[in-house]
Amino acid sequence: MASNIDPESGIEAEGADIEAEGGQQGGVQSVDRALAVLEILARDGHAGVSEIAEEMHIHKSTASRLLGSLVSREMVHQNSERGKYQLGFGILRLASSIPGRLSLVREARPVLESLAEQYKETVNLAVLRSNYAVNVDQAMGPSTLATYDWVGSLTPLHATSSGKVLLAALTAEERDRILKETGTPARTPRTITNRGKLESQLLDVSRDGYAVAREEFEIGLNSMAVPVYNHVGTVIGAVSISGPAFRFDPEQTPGLAEALKQAGMQVSANMGFTRR
Fold this sequence. Notes:
Arc Repressor Mutant, subunit A; Beta-Lactamase
């Protein structure tokens, strides 16, 4: 089959797309090209017909037809001042329908199980509810000593690694409100009850991307947690891994902090988050 690309210019010959689009293969090609246009606009913010045509190695008339079709569907909008194109509100309508269909527990489950299998410890998924961290799912490592089912348990924000992650993501005003309502009672002799010391640790959480609790909620239990983000970059949960203090020191476990961060980012990506 002869190529439709001009060997000298590297651009598709004008009119070649019209012939191709007459069949099923041409229809698939048109869809693929339309998606490529959307990806270019998403990446660059805006682009003109010539820029799109050059990058896609197609004729300007083809690029113009693709853009015209996308404009008619409100997927693309033309800036009247500069004549360039950008993503339209149609894309927003499509995207806004996704979050409501995503289940945090369902999207996180394979990641939790993989992490528990790799490190042989208990992995939990927690969210913020009524001033507490609520565990909504749990995966057990194959050789873990823990048998307690944490799902549904309310745990204090100031004394757990998940809670610290959730606290660190709040505004200062919201954090102050919650801590005034709940206080910072000692769960063990190691619980951080001093507000200033807690705030300092939360700054470390924001900087380092993870939180650690060493026997602060329960004697003999250590844990580490990382945030989970939604499609707009808001922290909506925390993934934690915990184990017996006699064998589990999260910050001394080789590769754990990075593996946990990657797990958090994977769940976040499943929820539509894109790292900027």
